[in-house]
Amino acid sequence: MHADELTAKALLDALPRAVVVCDVAGRIVAWSAQAERLYGWREADVLGHHVLDVLVPDAVREQHDTDLMAALLAGETFVGERQVVRRDGRPLHVYTAVAPIRGDGGEVVGIIGTTEDLSDRRDLERQARESTEHLQLALDAAGLGTFRWNRETGEVVWDERMEELYGFAPGSFDGTFERYVAALHPDDRARTLATIEEASRTGAPYRVEHRAVLPDGRERWIAGAGRPTVDADGVVTGAIGCSLDNTVVVQRRLEQEAAAAAALQAAEQERLHRERLELLAWVNEAIGQAATTQEVMAGIVRVLVPRLADWCSIHVLTEPTAKVPEVETYHVDPDMVAFAREVAERYPYDPDAATGVPAIIRTGEPQFYPEIDDAVLDEVGADDDARRIVDQLALRSALGVPLVKRGRVIGALQLVMTSSRRRYTDDDLTLAQAVASRVASAVENRRLAEQQHRIATTLQQSLLPDRLPAIPGIDAAVRYWAAGEGTEVGGDFYDLFPTAEDAWAAVVGDVCGTGPAAAALTSMARHSIRQSAWRHDDPGAIFGWLNRAMLEAGTDGFLTAAYLGLRHAAAGVEVEVTAAGHPLPVLVRRDGGSQFVGVPGTLVGVFEKVRVHPVVVTLEPGDALVLYTDGVSDVAPPHDLDDAGVLDLVAAAARDGGSAEGTAEAIHRALAAILPIDRRDDDIALLVLRATAP
């Protein structure tokens, strides 16, 4: 059994009865898989809700329900039959055993209940006795130590088993979080605390695996799992959890990893198996060419067939919470792929299956059948239908290995030889484990990259306005294009907002750098510029206040920006253009003429004072004014643009685009034709203002 399985949640899910755990306020803090099946509620739907609200709604609640709940929270135990209500409204007659959970001082810190459906009355008495016994046996057998943390008081309560795990004499733990931190191995401390802090912030369950330094200097591996407790408003009030001694498991895993590495190293050094080394090269090439998890899966099965298998399938849990893996299958005979899919539909994925891919994913242990014969089929309990399938697929030799990354099983790789091929050997198993290691790293890295891209995109969107204001006589369009893979928050931004009843401001800026620091500076810049503009400061004061704020904040970066003040005039829209170290806006007249507008100014955030020189122009109907960041032109030759090239590109886009939106799209097409956006090293922010008839 692996460490990831020895968690409180895994133990609860392994019990044959529904288990519900509540805190002292009656709020649900744990809800087993059997509880989901019995009551029809998913754990995510009930956590934090009062147990009576879930199982005994107001419409059917009686006084004795409330009294019973109060008695349980006062420390009493209840065993007997109850009437509850399923999620779909159907009444359910159950047999339940509910007991208080006590802390080290004997105080009630929660309640735990096990429940079974009474549809089979013959086993009622036996099952009622076993309910409590099984729970106790499971907890005793697991050797779990438990803890409870009160966020408000900072108190940490350990039971005796928990103290024993960390080498403390019974009752000698002082109940402080600092003492727990001091017991963590220095090399594991930051990672462990980061996991706990993230769980406290989000309220999500967490798992940790770390070394503890005992008082006598010995080291022990500890596996722990915790779940934050929340109040009725969803605010985290603390946490509860459990831990166990995981030293033997970790040592075994490290020994296995060392053995696999040594075997692979020996094979590479001796170069006795050129074909297999070439296979690893093909695997690396397939991974390198894949941009997504699905492409990794599809590429790997096609590399391994027919080089290492006649039939290959890869199964990946694409998210940490996924229960059923995504599957990619390939066979030397395309017709057999269709048949294999029919078999998969006939036998849906069962996470609890004793053999095959579910068992590999669940246990993290490989399965190796050098020869699939009647003895093997008898061993796995194959029925007549399964034996016919084995014959139809001509399965003669098979092996399956887990995909493991950072100690977590994220899937499995299954390889099969048919009657036309040789049988698998121990060397094949070692090679498959090496392939699986590469695949696991690739899949996890792409999952993290995709997650990072989503995070960066969301954060970038939060730094830009949700929508543009309607400005009479002005047609506006904006664009933001992230460079490359878009996994870092860029420093480019735009803004368009009213400053008075008949006045507006437009801004395009570029913060030096990317990532969190650039995001913070972008937010500061937008806020400062808006506040100053709303106070009706002139452009010099606007950039002066921002410059002062950046210098006082001690930011390492700087920014450039172009600021426009817009106001209606008799001849059209009067625009005051101010540039602070930023590329000058391009004015395209309706007759096609184009020019840069404004006078260059100094950078913001570098010098004691910012010097800018506002210039006023008037936009007449049909004229367009385009603001942009230097990602448009600042690229390596031969893809760069000089000033003349920028003028020509913007003028052509304004002429061909017509509207502001059309102009923005035309600029996009023109830039992508020079160098695709995903190959650029800098983001681009774009703001197009086109004057219309009043």
Oligomer: single chain
Question: What number is the mean pLDDT?
Answer: 84
Q: What is the annotated CATH architecture of the largest domain?
A: 2-Layer Sandwich
- Fourth CATH level, the homologous superfamily of the largest domain: PAS domain
CATH fold node name of the largest domain: Beta-Lactamase
Which secondary structure elements does this structure contain, and how are they paired or packed?
Blueprint lengths: L7 H7 L3 E6 L4 E4 L1 H7 L3 H4 L4 H5 L7 H11 L4 E8 L5 E12 L5 E10 L6 H19 L2 E6 L5 E3 L1 H6 L11 H7 L2 H17 L3 E8 L5 E12 L5 E10 L1 H24 L3 H16 L3 H15 L3 E6 L9 E6 L2 H13 L9 H8 L3 E3 L4 H6 L4 H10 L1 E11 L2 E11 L7 H37 L11 E8 L10 E9 L2 E9 L4 H19 L4 H15 L5 E11 L2 E9 L5 E3 L5 E3 L18 E5 L4 E5 L14 H15 L2 H15 L9 E8 L3
Antiparallel strand pairs: 1-2, 1-5, 3-4, 4-5, 6-7, 6-10, 8-9, 9-10, 11-12, 11-15, 13-14, 14-15, 16-25, 17-18, 18-19, 19-20, 20-23, 21-22, 21-24, 24-25
Helix pairs in contact: 10-17, 11-12, 11-17, 12-17, 18-19, 20-21
Characteristic terms for this protein:
Phosphatase 2c, domain 1, Beta-Lactamase, alpha+beta, five-stranded antiparallel sheet, about 700 residues, single chain
Descriptive overview:
This protein has 694 residues and is of the alpha+beta class. The N and C termini lie far apart (76 Å). The longest helix is centred in the middle third of the chain and has 37 residues. Strand 21 and strand 22 form a beta hairpin. It contains 21 helices and 25 strands.
